[in-house]
Amino acid sequence: MMRIVLAEDHKTVREGLKMLVNAQTDMEVVGEAGDGAAAIKSVREQHPNIVVMDISMPEMNGLKATRKLKAEFPDIKILTLTRHSDDSFLEQLIGAGASGYILKQSAPAELITAIRTVGDGNAYLDSSLTEKVMGGYLSRGLRGDRKNDVSEREMEVLRLIAWGYSNKEIGNRLELSVKTVEAHKANAMRKLNMRDRIDIVRYAILKGWLEDS
After folding, report:
1. Those residues with Cβ within 8 angstroms of residue 139's Cβ, 6 or more apart along the chain or in another chain
2. Which of 58, 206, 80 is nearest to 144 (CA)?
3. Which terminus of the chain has fewer Cβ atoms in its 10 Å neighbourhood, N or C?
């Protein structure tokens, strides 16, 4: 059972999300919050697996709350739910450690798919944003044709990063130290001319990693 905290400042929207999530046999809303600070408090009290986080909230916005939650709970999965399709929001949220990004305009079924995907340890990007993100990848001119320069272990680390795993989680899965994971990540990013996590996600889309189960 996936334990979920909903962070959304509009109560009517939050109630609708709660009904949708609780209607699933494998999900349960264990906490609700109307702002980022309340979301952090709810996570500390309820210990959920996933937080569905709105960006635009009073007191503390979703971006700041995401950064604070990932710093305190590195293993928690955060799915961003927003109306904003701008690249800058996407880059900031991915950089803060969000595992998924879905638009409020999307169908309810896609939200449920996104929650399950993130809950399974994979990354999720709203289907309407894939083309835009890939456009940014191509405009950056990343050298996606240099796969042979990247070792299998470095590629494995990149894939796990794209799926939303923290360095500590990757180390545990691959039986490596955090420093070794960081070294593999740095080497792969240098070889592929990547500068940040958004470039890793763009590369993952190109390779079809986000479609893997």
Report:
1. none
2. 206
3. C
In whole angstroms, what is the distance from residue 111 CA to residue 113 CA? 5
Phi, then psi, of 78 in degrees rounded to 5? -120, 125
**Three-state DSSP state, 7:** strand
Domains annotated for the chain, with CATH where assigned, are 2-125 (3.40.50.2300), 135-211 (1.10.10.10)
Torsion sign (Cα): 189, 190, 193, 194: positive
Convert 12-53 into a string of H (helix), E (strand) and C (coil).
Answer: HHHHHHHHHHHCCCCEEEEEEECCHHHHHHHHHHHCCCEEEE
Mean pLDDT of the chain: 85
C-alpha to C-alpha distance for 57 and 27, rounded to whole angstroms: 24
pLDDT > 70: percent of the chain: 86
pTM: 0.67
Determine how many CB atoms are found less than 10 A away from the CB of residue 24: 14
Indicate the pLDDT class of residue 146, thresholds 50, 70 and 90.
low
User: Sheet of 50-54: strands edge to edge?
Assistant: 27-33, 2-7, 50-54, 77-82, 100-103, 124-125
